[in-house]
Write a structure and sequence with these properties.
CATH class: Mainly Alpha
Strand order of the largest sheet: 1-2-3
Number of domains: 1
Number of strands: 8
Structural class: alpha+beta
CATH topology: Cytochrome-c3 Hydrogenase, chain B
Number of helices: 14
CATH architecture: Orthogonal Bundle
Shape: globular
Largest sheet: 3 strands, antiparallel
Order of helices and strands: EEEHHHHHEEHHHHHHEEEHHH
Distance between the termini: 72 Å
Strand content: 5-15%
Amino acid sequence: MNLIKKEILTTDLTTWTIGPYHGSLPAPMRLRLSLDGEIITDCDVETGFLHRGLEKACEFQSWRAAVAYADHLDPECAVFGELVLCLAVEQLAEIEVPARAKCIRVILSELSRISSHLSYMVRMARAVGSETIIHYLLRDRERILDLFELLTGARFSINFLRFGGVQADVTDGFIERVLEVCELIRIRMKEYNDLFTFNFGFVKRTSRVAPISKDLVSFCGVTGPNARASGVSFDVRKKFPYSGYDRLDFETPLGQGEGGVLGDVHDRFLIRLREITQSMEILKQLLDVVPSGEYVNRKLAKDSVVPPGEAYSRIESSRGLLGCHVVSDGGPSPSRVQFRSPTLANLLAIPQIVRGIRIEDLPVVLASLDLGIAEADR
């Protein structure tokens, strides 16, 4: 009898270091990967390459100048950093905000949310190699940046919010232009779906890949679209309404496991696509009933002193819960300013969700988390 000798192929773990600057990474960061062949077995995430000392810089500026620094918390959607700081200071100093100013703030917030989600879709398209849809998305995002420029004079760092309101009233034709852009994007959603969402290659690259479980959402403190994609119904606009969101009628989309597993990359993409639709509905409701009156609290002195104390505010940014803790000692500048950014929780989840995926899926997984490294390395 001939004996067949069986040979067992054994492999050793290899270690890869990617970053801090690499085309597959969404921003400057370093990943140390342990690989078994092409399968990721472990991952260590290192950030800090964009550290700017933004919070400490606020302590050396006047209260009014601190708004400009908060504007740079997340360069992609600057209004959220301004808004969360203004809400904290207004709570601490008991500053009343006119209804018209609240409405303008919400309009800017929802436009920023749409713009941020369009940018997210661009990064997803780049990660899977779909070049055509990128031009469609950037074309429509330019229309929103044009609206920012029409109202504030700037396209990215708008520096438009003030304690007690906003810097200026809406310009002529602004409301009509917003309605036009909303209608345009509503029509273009069919193009996005035909070219990208329902594309066979995109569905195969995103389905059943790197799901985030509800337990991991709770353990890491993940919020925003990434948490809602996993079926966790938490939206600051609903749970802790601010700036008049309690008077608006809108839904909070949740993941449904349409890619095969609840909370996978496909769910995280679909959630943001549906949130664009909800943001447009919010804008239509607001633009129909923009209240009249002042756009800023005229009783607020330019160099008013914030009384001693501390306050905490939170809002729903495009990436999740954004919090701000402000401490005042009664002086002309903040004693302490701290931000709670949603990206930090997403970074904590990376080592857990990339275990077991193939190395070629890593860029898609990172893009699906919508990481804002600038706000994490503040």
